[in-house]
Amino acid sequence: MAQLDLQSKLAILADAAKYDASCASSGTSKRDSRGGKGVGSTEGMGICHAYAPDGRCISLLKILLTNSCIFDCAYCINRKSSNVRRARFTAQEVVRLTLEFYKRNYIEGLFLSSGIIRSSNYTMEQLVEVARSLREDHDFRGYIHLKTIPDADPELVRQAGLHADRVSINVELPTESGLQRLAPEKDSGQIETAMKDTRRSIEEAGDAKRRFKSAPKYAPAGQSTQMIVGADAASDGDIIVRASSLYDRFQLRRVYYSAFSPIPDASAVLPLMRPPLMREHRLYQSDWLMRFYGFKPAEVVDAAGTDGMLPLDIDPKLAWALKFRDNFPVDVNRAPREMLLRVPGLGTKAVDRILSSRRWRKLRLDDVGRLTLSVAKVRPFITTIDWRPTLLIDRNDLRSLVAPKQEQLELFAA
């Protein structure tokens, strides 16, 4: 490999990291260096690279340790047979970049992944060394997210969790058959075993922390994973069921979805075109329905068509409501929270406002309009003391009335 300067390496390895979607710094413990000790913080504002659930802009140095890899996964641009320019950081180069970027207020933390070089254990050792050096040698208190390697020694993966705020292990593809076809060197059983071990370590550390204040924290922001969407034949229904299973079995903080993107010199087994980005968006919406709106996986799957695909022109909650109209209209003055959460157009905050307001008086349609963003979408599915949709909920053209209007964008609009 030709010798490259640090800036050239950064250009190559930051670009190579853009395919990893699981980049967010929410959920970790609060640390800062305002007392004069240490460097960095897990809070504050910076250059926007990602958003936390509370709306804060999160800036992370997002790079690969190296884009060289001994594996040949068909969907990966950094696969062994790919004709891309290769580069590799040393552990100390990553430490130096992180500290210098932070001191210039460019970033709030580090997101570090890597291709596999020499062996899984060797690569995992390098990733852990970066986090260890930042924490122990430089007292870095900012956010660290490490991508761990499932077939590495479990002790190395455990060390990663002791230094990082969040660890993640990619399941790569939604189905085992897809993984065997496109990444035969990877083992879904091995991936799930590593996720199970990480969950156990997080639970044991949490239990120890409740009993002993001096007990070390272990991945306080939990673990996450990522699935590639559209590289194989998995339907949205397959992906939803798989994601729900991962949440239940491994207590994941997040499942990230990354739309497959065609790569240079691609294998003939891969699709020629990327899936619509809206498909990725609809999967995130379905994910939120399960996590925050009380929908069961089977109910979200019911919103999909006969081919198992979610509609792209309307969101999954609206699709479910149109398919199961016998659940509506819902009386906003009497309905329990779980039913209000199923009304299209009502988010969790709007529902909480409705529940709070109706304790003091009966709500009218205008009141609901002030508590939500779009009363037009809500009207066919609710009743108030002055509004009843009568035959509106039974109209054959209801979908066209409540679906977002399609708008042709102007190429040269200001």
UniProtKB/TrEMBL annotation:
Keywords: Iron, Iron-sulfur, Metal-binding, S-adenosyl-L-methionine. InterPro entries: Aldolase_TIM (IPR013785), DNA_rSAM_put (IPR023874), Elp3/MiaA/NifB-like_rSAM (IPR006638), Endo/Exo/Phosphatase_dom_1 (IPR051675), rSAM (IPR007197), rSAM_sf (IPR058240), RuvA_2-like (IPR010994). Residues 59-286 form the Elp3/MiaA/NifB-like radical SAM core domain. Its cofactor is [4Fe-4S] cluster. It holds the Pfam family Radical_SAM. PANTHER family: ENDONUCLEASE/EXONUCLEASE/PHOSPHATASE FAMILY DOMAIN-CONTAINING PROTEIN 1, TYPE II SECRETION SYSTEM PROTEIN K. This is DNA modification/repair radical SAM protein.
